[in-house]
């Protein structure tokens, strides 16, 4: 299988967060990430440095989410459930702030759930962990929170920041 074939395959919906995104999340949140509900591993073996990691085996959708949540969900059919949970937990106050790295699929129902939140449309194509070539799809980073200035400062150098006009 070529490096690009993995992005088109349903064999793995996992695309590990590139360092360029992790660095900006940490710039936005100097106190750190409280939860990665879609982690590849626990502790020091995890791709994303967070206080708590939920892996596929932990069933992150059924666990509690609190604090500052960074989410890069599996990019398969389950993405809607992950996005729905993130929005629900944020709107009900358990998640104080959230940043999500997602494929830039603006025509989907799950992306519609995020339309009222600030987003960065990443320029170019990201190279996800474990791959040598860029993804064949665009990426978007969505921010749910009140510190708009911190998000804009952290992410505006890698893409345009957008907000819905009401």
Describe the structure.
It contains five helices and seven strands; from the N terminus they run H-H-E-E-E-H-E-H-E-E-H-E. With 166 residues, it is an alpha/beta fold. The model is unreliable at 1-11 (pLDDT under 50). It has helices spanning 3-8, 19-28, 79-91, 109-112, 148-155, and strands at 33-36, 50-53, 67-71, 95-103, 118-122, 139-144, 159-162. The strands form two sheets. A five-stranded mixed sheet has the order 3-4-6-5-7. It has a two-stranded parallel sheet with strand order 1-2.
Summarize the structure.
The protein is an alpha/beta fold and 166 residues long.
Percent range for β-strand residues = 15-25%
CA gyration radius, whole angstroms: 15 Å
pLDDT < 50 stretches: 1-11
What gross morphology would you assign?
A: globular
Number of alpha- plus pi-helical segments? 5
> Quaternary status of these chains?
single chain
| Helix-and-strand structural type | alpha/beta
What is the terminal-to-terminal distance?
45 Å
- The run of helices and strands is HHEEEHEHEEHE
How much is the average pLDDT? 91
Q: If strands are numbered along the chain, what order do they take across the biggest sheet?
A: 3-4-6-5-7
Helix content: 10-25%
Number of strands: 7
Biggest beta-sheet profile: 5 strands, mixed
Question: Any chance you could write out the topology, listing elements then pairs?
Answer:
Elements: H1 3-8, H2 19-28, E1 33-36, E2 50-53, E3 67-71, H3 79-91, E4 95-103, H4 109-112, E5 118-122, E6 139-144, H5 148-155, E7 159-162
Parallel strand pairs: 1-2, 3-4
Antiparallel strand pairs: 4-6, 5-6, 5-7
Helix pairs in contact: 2-5
